[in-house]
């Protein structure tokens, strides 16, 4: 039964994608406005549905942070709807022709950006993702199949219903946006194998979800969002300006993927600098896990002993790994071994050291004298963020609208044959 | 044991990829020249190894076409080596910086093209692929793991040995190119799951290999090379010029992926045109499989009856499917249902019909008034062809050097924190 359900879901999405593929930029702006209006009209229903989710979450004993993540109130819902206006204002990446050339046989060839077709997105907790992803998909002419977390199923249903009503009012198939609301996990693995209809899967969630998608999907998957981020403090860094950057990378928002996980410190400055850094971090509530040298240099700070597993941990909390390294080579080797390919930074005033780090560290984002916290579609000026990719094909780092497009080759001849 | 072998293979490839990543364009030209020289020196050994494969193939009763595919002689080997010169002459896509921007916080941000890292390529029969792929991978700074067909294992070993000797002579790790020569199929599935080390898998082979990769790989796979190609002959086509294009698409090289599989004919011209087309195709040795209307219009040509399975067949031979359609809508609907997303063409002089076809048919290559046979890296002016992708992420259609690259984001601040 679930197979039939998924087949129909896929067929309807593919069918809807044909209707979306050739909309003009103006059409899509109007479509998104219709969705914003529909969400506005349905605000009371959406908030009521969200209240049900909140009640259920409390009854299930979810912690306060989790409940806050899934909560919608008037102000948050208004912000979600207002964000649609920002997406409406973005440039439309579809329909651009590039790499145009005249071949020797007279054929005129070019590439044209087109939608991917059907995108599947699997996500957790926050209900605003339902709106964000639907809007970004439609802006780029794609149909989308959404699978949210079970904690927000009522909110997601109400949001999807309003989005679909807006699409229908505009005169397009409502199935351009479909939500899988059945909590059966077999539907997730089934979705991952729907390669006849779905062109790309974006998992937005933790490492277990990413791994499930990598292992089960027969559809291309954009892995991402797991950041084991490093900052290498070189001996030639301006130490008087370094502490604020390290604190920013670790403390400003410790629960996100671009927060700092491991600090690598050049041994020549460790003895002098680590005690003053530890004092500042400690005042910010950061607890430390360090190598033996770090522990010896910081006897007052109860530094736990770091293991191989420590360095493979994305903390997502106010914990920081620290390792004293002999030189740049050891720092780069450590990053190559333990990084998830998300974001790495170096602090140094030495141009040779800086250049080698930027060249030899190969992560999605590499920073010189800046916090890792900037790896974000908004911060990078992309106007939107679908996800942060940590794999190397198609899109790397923060994914803007461009990542939801592909191209086709168009060739115009004059009854031309190949000789 | 095979797991340890694969882990070591992956580790060595990854290690070599670090040495390759920051070579200059001049370095890589010299590296490829060293490989060409090494292959030249080893010519006798390579031809002797190939003779063993040919003898074994004859003993195993392989057909003449297959034996011809795996045969190397002096002339063919010289051509393979000469092709390295063409790759040396191509522009190097690595190290280009683009999308540079100055953010409001003073960070200067850009993207830089970098190698993917380690590429795994699984291929069949023709030994020249061993050289082609190794050279294209190295040109773009990638390490490569090769897995050829068992019919050419001696040839591939001799070629890989010469390539590795050339790399070592240039002063880089020979493990930049590694060949899996053990015929154990578990090594293929193992390679597909080596995601810790391998960044991309390119299967160059038939639909069974493609499917295996889609289902088993935990590494991103570039599917491709399966072409169920359509040509729609519109009622407004110049019929006097159409026959040569149709014949070219079907007959010029029927065994390749961009050859024509199904001809769709507008019903208004079918009665007049199909008999004359059938006469020409028949003279070229083409046998026909058609819809009921086609069969009625061509009683003299022994047209077999087409089924759903017919239209899902990539013929790779002198067989052509023919279907008479009511209009453009039916042609587009047929293509959407049966195409593998490779190449489709329309012949028409009507600009409205042509525009709709180009907009609404979404395959890797869409042709107006030209043969489908042009879908090829060389024909498209890419200078090289890694494979022809029929999926939508990363690369679509003929893949040139660009498809072996990714980018990283580089950000330079002044001890900049996120506010």
Automatic annotation (TrEMBL), chains A, B:
User: What GO biological process term is on the record, naming one?
Assistant: L-proline biosynthetic process
| Taxonomic source organism | Shewanella fodinae
Name of the protein this chain belongs to = Gamma-glutamyl phosphate reductase
> What Gene Ontology cellular-component terms does the record carry?
cytoplasm
Q: Does the keyword Transmembrane helix apply?
A: no
**Could you tell me which PROSITE patterns the record lists for this protein?**
PROA
Q: Which UniProt keywords apply?
A: Amino-acid biosynthesis, Cytoplasm, NADP, Oxidoreductase, Proline biosynthesis
UniProt domain Aldehyde dehydrogenase: residue ranges: 10-282
Q: Does the keyword Cytoplasm apply?
A: yes
The record lists the catalysed reaction(s) as: L-glutamate 5-semialdehyde + phosphate + NADP(+) = L-glutamyl 5-phosphate + NADPH + H(+)
**What Gene3D superfamilies does the annotation carry?**
Aldehyde Dehydrogenase, Chain A, domain 1 (3.40.605.10), Aldehyde Dehydrogenase, Chain A, domain 2 (3.40.309.10)
Q: What is its main location?
A: cytoplasm
Subcellular location as annotated: Cytoplasm
Pfam families associated with the record: Aldedh (PF00171)
Q: Which NCBIfam families match?
A: PRK00197.1 (NF001221), proA (TIGR00407)
MF terms per GO, please? glutamate-5-semialdehyde dehydrogenase activity; NADP binding
The family assignment reads: Belongs to the gamma-glutamyl phosphate reductase family.
Q: What does this protein do?
A: Catalyzes the NADPH-dependent reduction of L-glutamate 5-phosphate into L-glutamate 5-semialdehyde and phosphate. The product spontaneously undergoes cyclization to form 1-pyrroline-5-carboxylate.
What pathway does the UniProt record associate with this protein?
A: Amino-acid biosynthesis; L-proline biosynthesis; L-glutamate 5-semialdehyde from L-glutamate: step 2/2
InterPro entries in the record? Ald_DH/histidinol_DH, Ald_DH_C, Ald_DH_N, Aldehyde_DH_dom, G-glutamylP_reductase_CS, Glu-5-SA_DH, GPR_dom
EC number assigned by the record: 1.2.1.41
């Amino acid at each position: 039964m679930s197979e039939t359900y998924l087949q129909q879901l896929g067929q309807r999405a593919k069918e809807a994608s044909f209707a979306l593929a050739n909309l003009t930029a103006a059409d899509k702006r109007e479509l998104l406005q219709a969705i914003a209006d529909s969400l506005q009209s349905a605000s009371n229903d959406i908030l009521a549905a969200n209240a049900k989710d909140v009640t259920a979450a409390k009854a299930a004993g979810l912690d306060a942070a989790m409940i806050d993540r899934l909560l919608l109130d008037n102000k948050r819902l208004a912000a979600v709807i207002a964000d649609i206006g920002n997406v409406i204002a973005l440039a439309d990446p579809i329909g651009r022709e590039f790499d145009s050339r005249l071949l020797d046989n007279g054929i005129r060839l070019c590439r044209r950006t087109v939608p991917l077709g059907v995108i599947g997105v699997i996500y957790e907790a926050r209900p605003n993702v339902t709106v964000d992803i639907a809007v970004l998909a439609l802006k780029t002419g794609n149909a989308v199949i959404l699978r949210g977390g079970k904690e927000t199923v009522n909110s997601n249903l109400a949001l999807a219903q309003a989005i679909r009503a807006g699409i229908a009012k505009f005169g397009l198939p409502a199935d351009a946006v479909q939500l899988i609301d059945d909590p059966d996990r077999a539907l997730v693995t089934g979705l991952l194998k729907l390669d006849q209809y779905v062109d790309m899967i974006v998992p937005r969630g933790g490492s277990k979800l990413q791994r499930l998608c990598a292992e089960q999907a027969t559809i291309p998957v954009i892995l991402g969002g797991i950041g084991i981020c490093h900052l290498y403090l070189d001996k030639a860094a301006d130490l008087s300006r370094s502490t604020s950057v390290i604190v920013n990378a670790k403390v400003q928002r410790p629960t996100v993927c671009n927060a700092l996980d491991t600090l690598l410190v050049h041994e020549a400055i460790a003895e002098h600098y680590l005690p003053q850094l530890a004092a500042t971090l400690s005042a910010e509530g950061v607890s430390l896990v360090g190598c033996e040298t770090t522990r010896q240099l910081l006897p007052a700070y109860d530094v736990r002993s770091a293991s191989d597993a420590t360095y493979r941990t994305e903390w997502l909390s106010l914990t920081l790994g620290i390792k004293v390294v002999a030189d740049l080579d050891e720092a780069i080797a450590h990053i190559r071994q333990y990084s998830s390919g998300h974001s790495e930074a170096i602090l140094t005033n030495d141009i040779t050291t800086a250049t080698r780090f930027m060249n030899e560290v190969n992560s999605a984002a590499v920073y010189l004298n800046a916090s890792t916290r900037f790896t974000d579609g908004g911060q990078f000026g992309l106007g939107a963020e679908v996800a942060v990719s940590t794999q190397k094909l198609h899109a790397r780092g923060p994914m803007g609208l461009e990542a939801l497009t592909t191209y086709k080759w168009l060739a115009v001849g004059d009854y031309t044959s190949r000789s």
